[in-house]
Every structure is written in structure tokens, then in C-alpha cells.
Amino acid sequence: MLNLKDRAIERVGNAGQNSLFGNAQDNVPKGGAGRDTPFGNRGNDRLVGGKGQDTYAFEMQPDAETNVDALVFRSNDRVALSDRFFDLEQTNDGIGKAFTNITTGTIGEDSRILYDQDTGEVFYDTDGSGGDDAVLCARVAGSSDILTADGFFVF
Ligand SMILES: [Ca+2]
Ligand SMILES: [Ca+2]
Ligand SMILES: [Ca+2]
Cα dihedral angle (88, 92, 94, 100), rounded to 10 degrees? Predict the structure, then answer.
């Protein structure tokens, strides 16, 4: 494990499995080869998994101004959502009905994670089709692969 909490510098993993921790600044953790888990922490981070099946962790309070991370996705990468800040249930199908692709689908009462396929934006919506606004959490960059419910899990 590389623990890199101190400064807003680039964090770089090696060929093994790395957990890379950012801090409250805007960080660019880079996993390199291997199955990595970049954690941005607060700040508008750029998370780069690199080669291998990587996991992008959403482990802090969503905030559309101070915590929107760019996820440099490659195919088969996944997103992990902390149950401290995301009120979601793990299902056999990732997060199941809580996931809605708003480019192709309609927001329902169970929708929590909204994905705009055209812009790559990912939002958290605490009440789906209810009146509360969705909060921008991340932008997916680097892959034209389309996110689906089973690309997410809760931890
Ligand atoms: Ca962040
Ligand atoms: Ca950060
Ligand atoms: Ca990697």
C-alpha cells in the first residue's frame, strides 16, 4: 500500500495492486499496471487506474463544486461507492435499479446513480424522481465504454 496523504502531488503505483490515497487537494493518483484502487479523497481529482481491472472509489461526501473526480476508465474498470455517503444496496446486478442511464432511460423513484452517457457525468440523487437535486460526482473520461449497473458495487 502506498499511503500518500501529505501533499498534492501525483501519486504513482507500480505493477502490483496499489491503493493510492489522495488528500483534500486536487490529486492525480495513477495506478499503473495491476488491479489498483485510486482514492481521490476530497478535491477535484483525476483518478487514473492504468492497465488492469481497477476500482475507482467514491469514499467522500459528494459535492458538485469541491469533489468531482475525473475517472480515466478502461474497459472492465469498476466504481466502488461507500455506504457512508451513498444510500444504496448491493444487488446481484451491481446496484441494479439504483443505476439509471439518463441518456437512454428515465429517472424513476429507485434511481440513485444517474449516468449521462453523452457527457460521461455521474450524479448521485438521494430521491430519484423526487424533488431533491442530483449532485454531480464524477466525469468518466478515457473510455467510450458505457457504464452499466454491474460496473458499480457498494462497500
Ligand atoms: Ca475527490
Ligand atoms: Ca483529493
Ligand atoms: Ca491498474
Answer: -80
Q: Which ligand is nearest to the CA of 60?
A: 1
Q: Could you tell me if residue 79 is left (phi over 0), alpha (psi between -120 and 50 degrees) or otherwise beta?
A: beta
For residue 20, the cross-strand partners are 2, 38
Give the Cα separation of 141 and 88 in Å (integer). Answer: 24
The Cα–Cα gap between 55 and 88 comes to 18
Residues within 5 Å of ion ligand 3, judged at the Cβ atom? 31, 36, 49-50, 52, 54
CA angle 81, 44, 137 (to 5 degrees): 40
Percentage of the chain beyond pLDDT 90 is: 79
Rg (CA), the chain: 15
Q: Which pLDDT does position 138 carry in this prediction? A: 96
CB 55 within 8 A of CB 73: no
Ligand nearest to the backbone CA of 32 = 3
Residue 6 pLDDT more than 50?
no
Q: Is the pLDDT of residue 91 over 90?
A: yes
**Residue 62 alpha carbon to ligand 1 centre in Å:** 8
Q: What is the pLDDT of residue 141?
A: 87
Report if pTM > 0.70: yes
